[in-house]
Amino acid sequence: MFSLLSLLDDIATTFDDVAIMSKVAIKKTSALMSDDLAVNAGVIHGVNADQELPMVWKIFVGSLLNKLYSILGVVALTYFYPPALQVVLLIGGIYLAYEGAHKVLEKVTKQDSKKNLAEISEEKKVSGAIRTDLILSIEIIVIAQNSISGPFVNQLMTLVIVGLLASILIYGLVAILVKIDDLGLYLIRKEYKKLGYACVSSMPWIMRGLGIVGTIAMFLVAGGIFAHSFHLDLYTYEVLQNLFLGLVGGFSALILQSILSHIKSKFLR
């Protein structure tokens, strides 16, 4: 009897520890999730209404597989060579900062290097979104791993929960967002015209806002990675520090990439 009570107490303690660590990990990765949300909502928005939810489902399934690969990779690195996780984290931070700087540059210079999404097939949109999700999934899981501690089983359970919740939250919200304009049209047909028109007219602003939030999130996450990797403490306010470091790192990477591209093109003439 005492053995059973002791076992139940251990199980309860384990679940309590996992719940606490999951909460901390989700808080640490929330900015990155917002970027994932913005990117995928932008990919889905604008396709035929009857294809929106099937596309969201395909990307969601791909996202779950990405989380599985990411968890297996992180667990393997943690077991065989833990310092490699910091390298992966730093590389991901540089990538995020670069992407954020690239987006800002496109807006400032009024350029758009991306193809018109309407000209891209559904399969390519889905595969492209899944590839982007893989990069963000790796970062989510690595950041989550860096924010937790304790027995291996507890860490593994936490990573699984974080991965599942991340995909469910992100793609659940994507599914809702891409259907707001359809809801508006439905309300208009039902004579709730003011509310319906408000839903339809709000979509461009919502998508624009998500893009801005996603870009800022890239800089904040990247800056946080840089600060953690190099033990920097520049400002009293962590948010300002991370934003500053993300901007510096992103535009430095952008300048370096431009220089290397120029050198490459010069020697390949």
Protein described:
The chain is mainly α. The protein has one domain (2-267). Helix content is 86%, strand content 0%. It has helices at residues 2-44, 49-80, 83-108, 122-146, 152-177, 180-189, 193-230, 238-267. The chain starts with a helix and ends with a helix.
Sequence stretches where pLDDT stays below 50 over 5 or more residues: none
- Secondary-structure content class: mainly alpha
What is the percent of helical residues? over 70%
Domain module tally: 1
| SS field, number of helical segments | 8
Helix-strand string: HHHHHHHH
The rounded Rg comes to 21 Å
Q: What is the global morphology?
A: globular
Number of strands: 0
Rounded mean pLDDT score: 82
Task: Provide a concise account of the structure shown.
The chain is an all-alpha fold. It has 8 helices and no strands. Helix 1 packs across helix 4.
Index terms:
mainly alpha
Describe the secondary-structure layout:
Elements: H1 2-44, H2 49-80, H3 83-108, H4 122-146, H5 152-177, H6 180-189, H7 193-230, H8 238-267
